[in-house]
Amino acid sequence: MRDVTDLSCFGWDGCDQGLLPAGTAPARVARIDRGRLTVLTAEGELRVVPGTSLHASVLGAPAVGDWVALRGELAVAVLPRRSAFVRTVAGRTSTAQVVAANLDVVLVVDALTVDPRLRRVERYLAVAWNSGATPVVVLTKADLCDDVAAAVAAVREDALGVDVLPVSSVTGAGVDAVRALLGPGRTAAMVGPSGVGKSSLANALAGRPVAGTREIREDGRGRHTTTARELHVLPGGGLLVDTPGMRELALYDDADGVDTAYADVAELAAGCRFRDCGHRGEPGCAVAAAIAEGRLDPARFTGWRKLQAEARRQLLRVDARARAEEHARLRTRFRAQRELPNRPRVGR
Ligand SMILES: Nc1nc2c(ncn2[C@@H]2O[C@H](COP(=O)(O)OP(=O)(O)OP(=O)(O)O)[C@@H](O)[C@H]2O)c(=O)[nH]1
Ligand SMILES: [Zn+2]
C-alpha cells in the first residue's frame, strides 16, 4: 500500500522543492467538464471550482494531468509541468492546446487493420518527442491482422528509438507489455485518430470498463465516442489519459520533435555540401544520394520535409519575434546573394 502523503505528491516533484503556494494542497486534474475540474487528491476524487487566478497563470488553463494547488475547494494555481503533449487547435489559428500534462509516456496508437499509416505515426511521434515524455507506438487490433510481425517491423524501421508494441484488446495479447510501462505513479496518455481502439485498450488495461467504446458503423463513418479527456487510475497504480480521437494533429512548436522523429533524415541533411541545402538537386546533397542508393525511402523524406515546413509555418504564426528573425535571415541571405562575386554589381 502506498502511503497517503506519498500519493498527494505522486508524480509531481514540486512538493519537496517548495513550489506549492502556502496553505494549499496539490491535486491532479482527472477531468474537465464545462469549466469544473474533477481532481484526484489524497482523500479521493473531488469536484472543485477553478479560482479566477487559475486562468491568469502563465501556464494558461489547466489540462488533464496537470497538478493544481487547492485551497479548500478552490483550485488557485496550475503547478509547473514537467511534460505536455501540445497541439494546435484545429482551424487556422495558432492557439496551443495542452492535450495532457505531466506524462511519462505518450502512447501513439494506431490500428493494424489497414497498412500502418507510417506518415501519420511519424507526425504523432514528432509531437510526442517534443512533449518531454517517452513515445511508444502501440499497434492495436492485432487479432485482425494477418502478418503482425511484418506490420510491426515496417513501423519499427521508421519509428527510430521507439518501442513498437502490437496489442489486441479483444484477445488480450500484448496488453501486459503496455501495462508494464505503467508502473505505480507513472502517467501515460494515448493519442491517435478516432476508432483505432484507444478506449478499448484503456478498458483492457484497467480490467473493467472505464472508457466508452463504440461499434464501427457498417458504412465505416462512425462517430466519436470519447468526448472528454480523462485520467484513469489503473489497478497497478499507473495513470492513463484517454483522449478523444483527433481528426488531424496539427503541429505546434515541434521543429525539434520533427528532427528527433526523423533523426536519420536530419543526420543525412547535416552531411549535405551546402549548409542551407534544399535537397532539390543541389550538388553534394547527401539526402538525394541516400535516396538514389535506396538507403532512404523518398516517402519518408517527403514526410520530413512536409512536417518541417509545417513546424516552421506554425512557428511564424505563433511568434512575432521568430517572424522578425525570419525576415532578418531572408535579408541576410539576400545580401549574401548580392555579394556573390559572379554577380554584376549595380550602381557602384
Ligand atoms: N478486433 C478488434 N477490435 C477492436 C480492438 N480494439 C478496438 N476494437 C474495436 O474498434 C472500434 C473502436 O474502438 P474504440 O476503443 O472505441 O476506439 P477509440 O480509439 O477509443 O475511438 P475514439 O473514442 O473515437 O477516439 C470498436 O468497435 C472496438 O470494438 C481490438 O484489439 N481488436
Ligand atoms: Zn541536401
UniProtKB/TrEMBL annotation:
Keywords: Cytoplasm, GTP-binding, Hydrolase, Metal-binding, Nucleotide-binding, Ribosome biogenesis, RNA-binding, rRNA-binding, Zinc. It is found in: Cytoplasm. GTP binds at residues 140-143, 192-200. Residues 101-247 form the EngC GTPase domain. Binds 1 zinc ion per subunit. Belongs to the TRAFAC class YlqF/YawG GTPase family. RsgA subfamily. HAMAP family: GTPase_RsgA. One of several proteins that assist in the late maturation steps of the functional core of the 30S ribosomal subunit. Helps release RbfA from mature subunits. May play a role in the assembly of ribosomal proteins into the subunit. Circularly permuted GTPase that catalyzes slow GTP hydrolysis, GTPase activity is stimulated by the 30S ribosomal subunit. This is Small ribosomal subunit biogenesis GTPase RsgA. It comes from Blastococcus deserti. The lineage of its organism: Bacteria, Bacillati, Actinomycetota, Actinomycetes, Geodermatophilales. The gene is rsgA.
